């Protein structure tokens, strides 16, 4: 029962509050499929974005997201 989406959903919400919006807790919440209708590909892209830019914790998520990680990858290749 621990892997049931509803169980993971409730646990993720509790961990988001308790641990101040860690990346992994937010991604786990999104992956349950019960919070949003984002596709798996969109969730994967969002996860890559927040990990690459180091967006972690409630204060980071409250700020406007203005950086484009794809542009940063292009700069590295040039």
Overview of the molecule:
The N and C termini lie far apart (49 Å). The protein is an all-alpha fold. It is 65% helix and 0% strand. The protein is built from five helices and no strands. Mean pLDDT is 83; it is low at 72-78.
Shape designation: globular
- SSE arrangement, N to C: HHHHH
Main beta sheet strand tally, sense and closure: none
Radius of gyration: 14 Å
Structural class: mainly alpha
Number of strands: 0
Mean pLDDT: 83
Strand content: under 5%
Q: Helical stretch count?
A: 5
How far apart, in Å, are the first and last alpha carbons? Answer: 49 Å
Question: Low-confidence segments, ≥5 residues, pLDDT <50?
Answer: 72-78
Helix content: 55-70%
SSE arrangement:
Layout: H1 5-18, H2 23-31, H3 40-53, H4 58-62, H5 69-77
Helix pairs in contact: 1-2, 2-3
What characteristics describe this protein?
5 helices, mainly alpha, 78 residues, globular, disordered C terminus
Quick structural summary:
This protein is mostly helical. Helix content is 65%, strand content 0%.
